[in-house]
Amino acid sequence: MKPVRVRFAPSPTGALHIGGVRTALYNYLLARKHNGTMILRIEDTDQNRYVPGAEEYIINTLNWVGIQIDEGVGKGGPHAPYRQSERKSIYKQYAQQLVDEGNAYYAFDTEQDLETMRERLKAAGDANQQYGSGSRMQMNNSLTLKKEEVDNKLAAGDAYVIRLKVPANQEVRLTDLIRGEVVVNSSQIDDKVLMKSDGMPTYHLANVVDDYLMKISHVIRGEEWLPSAPLHVLLYQFLSWQNEMPQFAHLPLLLKPDGNGKLSKRDADRMGFPIFPLNWTDPATQELATGFKESGFLPEALINFLAFLGWNPGTEKEIFSMTELVEAFSIERIGKAGAKFDIQKSQWFNQHYLRAKPDKELADYLLASLTSEGISCSNEKAEKICFALRERITFPHDLWEQGKIFFSAPTTFDEQIVSKKWNLDAVRTLSGFIDAIKTTQPHSADSIKSSLEKVTGELGIKTGQILQALRMSLTGGASGPDLMLTMEILGAVETVNRIKYALDNLKAKGS
RNA sequence: GGUCCGUUCGUCUAGGGGUUAGGACACCAGAUUUUCAUUCUGGUAACACGGGUUCGAUUCCCGUACGGACUACCA
For this structure, is A33 an active site residue? Predict the structure, then answer.
């Protein structure tokens, strides 16, 4: 068996889409699984769509999620360069070979010519209006022009493209590792442009040439490429590379969470979740799109989630580290149907991985938020807060949102709790509790609890009855981390102050 | 329109000629937590439709419907 060599080959036209990350992941998993090579190739053959910073973004993303590149852009390797714009002459040479052998031809048609052709075919009732065996002889190309005319045009520097001469009515078949055998009649394939008039190759040529030269063993890419795969097979045949042709695996698409269709940035914006792995500022509009990272997703959670969108190990285990994914991965277990992007499931993964972190690491997140809020806090206290909050969080920023109660006293109180729970019993208990706290030693959750129970015991009140009033007096709200622990973290003085404040300000309603 | 691909709970999916069609997320309920959350237990919920093949089809075959991708000198 050939060594496994796979490539992730994005084009630098903007931020990397989350679906692209999954494609990269599957490539990577296969490479690692078979001790193969993961290659990063940048497909920047469209100069008009080139976006500055996109390439760097791709590399940063791969780094962040933990997909290591063995060979390619940013890394180098035996098949350099790995940026297609730097390989122009290579493609040109193969395009020339195709022309010389009669499998491709020069075409000089203007956009207007193409337009006219399509209209003509449409009027004639042709099902598809393509530049191909049925129409190429009516066009302006080296098949219809005299040789010297062609030579003159070429010599004069007239704009031209090179098109593949697709044979008529021939069955082209390929075996897709995910979908099985796919057969297409060549008449359905048009004479695709191989070299553009700017001297750059199109995807089709560049991709086939590079995959061959870089000895790619498996082409794992999105399903949107399936319709053009037969064209690529044809190219391998014309170049006499059919024995070196990689195996194909066309991945099911990532679909929008509601309705149907490919997941797009629009959907993500509309439904309020990220679609890009990292923050991305569109250089043209300066518009910022928030990334998964900045939204608080952990890379291991994103990877685990993405891996399961279209693949599963066939067992009931769902939590997989990258190492475990490598171990379990196989192309055979990739599904055929598109997968809707389930943001809730992604959050569940995130919550899982976040909770698995030790308090100390959680505290780093909280400390970062505190610093940016200009609040100072000891590591010890931050860790305690994280301990109290750890079962309640999905994202790191929840630590700050739910933990801010430890740093600022409430000035308003939950209306519902006030009307339902702020009664005479509560006021009496809290009044007594203030004094009890002052003498409670040590100021720990356990002894605070005993003190509180002592007070309620003496008053003949059930502790549970006044707990919500107590919480509200401390935090203003109706829910939060363990109350006794909250008071321990707050400290005796702050606890007393807060209860006092509530007592003073809510007295009227209470009595 | 044409070509290709697809279709199991709301979602991600397992399964596969005879199963109580399994799991997870979400949702609901109960238990525990003298609050909330967590946790635990339980529950609702699916084989798109029509024909074959077969003793038997959700599973195999063919259609239909629906959905999607592609149909550029974009990738």
Answer: no
